[in-house]
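Write out this protein's structure.
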Amino acid sequence: MTLPLRYEIRDRLGGTAQGAYLAYDKKTNARCVIKMQGDEVHDVFPLERERRALTTIDSERVVKVLDAGPEYIVFPFISGKTLYESSDPLPLFEGISIVQKIAEGLVDTHAHGFVHRDVKPANVMRTGDDVVLLDYGLCDHPDFPSWMTPQDDSVFGTPLYMSSEAFAGNADARSDVYSLGVLAHGLFTGQDPYRGWFREQLREMVRRNPSRGIDPAFLDGPDGSAYVDLAMQSMSNTIRTRLHGKATPLTDIDPSIPVELSDVVLHALQTKPEDRLSSAQEFVTTLRAVPRERKAYIAVNKGALAKAETVQLLPDRDLSQYPTFEEARRLIEEQNKPVISRPRRAA
């Protein structure tokens, strides 16, 4: 493809589905970021979705578009870090402010009929006190033509942040509320919202199946904790927790967190859309009422939630089984991590 001559490509950037490049705008003498359409036919979908959304939405909480053509989009260069890249402890009041600003960006997004569908730490940029939503390549809108939708009934998204209805291909604005709830839970606790529930499910499975030879107490030790974390990375278990799990209150993990904040996040994480916070605006409104202790700090843990990647989920996937311990060991080996020791057998 051919870019306007005013743009000079300087470097390739990672972390996006499309080709993204650091560039120099000779007309404005400023750095910028350019996303370009790939060579494959399916590469046009995210670029066109993003172009349509970001040339429509006008919000200080959503990334701006400087220029756009059929095969490229030009964004301002933003000097900052995504939440994925940030790992320093945050004051509690600052964490609440970040979540509120993301919700404000979603309010403006939904006001134009768009659903982001991929709210996660890697798609939130922090620069100073500002927070900006990025990457609308998976966004949806009721007026999008059919050719912009996969024809094989597959669903794209980041499973760790997807709601129950999103897995069924029925995401709406409340799905973004859910994704922000997962992000907020991870930001304030450093844990997956369903880790406690999943551990209890494993404990019950071990208790009912003594033939597996695993002592239930193993799950409370360091190796057992590693096993729980690893087992949750199984796609089937990720989806299982989102469909059937019960999120752990923030206050159960960190009693210093205001109960009002814990309640807001749990309300956003309800499995049924009709039981959730009704909108991003309600998320903003309820957060404003949360007390903000300026001396309290939260530990930002990158972990599995931050590293979550967007994937394509094919229809008719078997979601029925938990992984065995041997399968978990193989997963560890594939990821080049130290293999956790086999649990001791029950006496």
